[in-house]
Design a protein that fits this description.
Length: about 450
Amino acid sequence: MANVIKLRKGLDINLKGKAAMTRMPVKPSEEYALVPEDFVGVAPKVVVREGDQVEAGDFLFVSKAFPNVGFASPVSGKVTAVVRGDRRKLLCVKVAADKVQRFKKFEVRDPKQMDGEAVVSALLEGGLFGYILQLPYAVSATPDARPKAIFVSAFRDMPLAADFSFELEGDEKAFQTGLTALSRIAKTYLGISPAQASGPLASMADAEVNVFDGPCPAGNVGVQVNHLDPVNKGEVVWTVPPTVVIFIGRYFAQGKVDLRRTIALCGSEMANPCYVETIVGQPLADILEGHYSDKKHVRLISGNPLTGKVTSLEGYAAANASEVTAIPEGDNVDEMLGWIMPRFKQFSANRSYFSWLFGKKKEYVADARIKGGERHIIMSGEYDSVLPMDIYAEYLIKAIITGNIDRMEQLGIYEVAPEDFAVAEFIDSSKLELQRIVREGLDMLRKENA
C-alpha cells in the first residue's frame, strides 16, 4: 500500500480552459527543431552540419562540459539549419523530416539484467541522459556524479496542467520499464496524487510509491524530495519527468529513440482545449492549427501559466513542457476605478474579492498582468503559507538578492528549484520575479562551487 503524505500549505488556482480528455490528431510536420535552451545548464556544441543526413537517435549537439552527453534528433532527415543568435549562441538545430522515418538501431535491453553503470551508459548512447535533471542547481544531470536517490513525480497540479494518467494510457509497460531501468541506478521514488492511487501508477514495481495529498505545489518534485530524502551539501538526487520515463522505457524495450509525447492544449483563449500527440521539436504552428490563431492581446505559453515560457507560433514543442497554454495578455484592459471596484470574476488568494463566495470549484479567466509594480519585500509570511517545504522562503530570497552564499546554503538553496516558488510568486505582494531570482541564485552557487 502506498504511503500517504498530507500537506496543508499551498494554493490551488482553478483556471478556465482545461484540456478535455480527448486526443486530436496532428499532421506530421515538414521540419522539426531541437532547442538547447530546453536543457537547463547545458552549453551545447553542434556535431552536425547543414546538409547532413541523420536518423532519429543521432546526436545533433552535445554538452561542451561532458561530450558523452548527447542530444538525439527527434526525427530522421536532412539538417537544414543551425540557427545561432547573439554571440553565436546556438538557438536550435532544424531537421527536414523524411516522409518515411528511419531510426538509429540500438540494442534491445532488459534493464532487470543490467547494473546501474550499464543503464547510464545506455542512456548516454541513446542521447536521453540529458533529459534527466538533478538537485542541487535544478539543471540537466551530469554523468560524473551518481545520485543517492531518483525521484519521479507523476502528479501535476499546476494551473491547467496536463493529466499524466491520461497521457500514460497505452504506455504503461514503457513507463514500468523506464522505472525499472532507473531503479538499477539508485533507489527510485514515484509520487502520485490521491486520484491516481486507484490506477495503474499505484501498482508500479521497482519504485517506492508515495501519495501526496495537498494543494499545489504538492506535485512539484522538489517538494517531494524535501519530504522524503532532502538534499544536503555534497549530495545529488536526480529528478526525472514522467514523460522522460516513458522515453527511457521505449528505448530499452524497442531499441530506438521514440520522442512521441502527448501534450495538452489549454487556456481560456484556446479554441478547442484538448490533448494532442506530437513529437519533441514539432513546430507549434502545426500543432495549434485549428486550435489557436495568432491573435492580438493573447499570450502563448510553452508550459503552464505559472512556470511556462512565453512563446509564439514560430516556436517548437519543448522537450520538457506538457502543455501549450493561451491566456489573455491583459494589455488592452481598461477597468473603471481599477482595484477599488468589487470583483466577482477574478481569483484572489485571500478574501480581497467577493469571488471567494463562489467556492473553490469556480473557474476563472486570468490574464498575464502583474497588477502592481515591484516594491520592497514585505515580511508577511506569504511565501511560507504556500510553500510546503522545511525552509524559510523569504529569508532565502533575501540572501539570494544580496548574494550571501553562506546564508543561501544555510537556508536550504540546495533543495529548491525555481518552479517551487511559482505559487509564491503568484501571490507575492512585492511583485518580485521569484523564479528568476532563484534561478540566478542557483547559477551563482553552481559557478562558485565549480
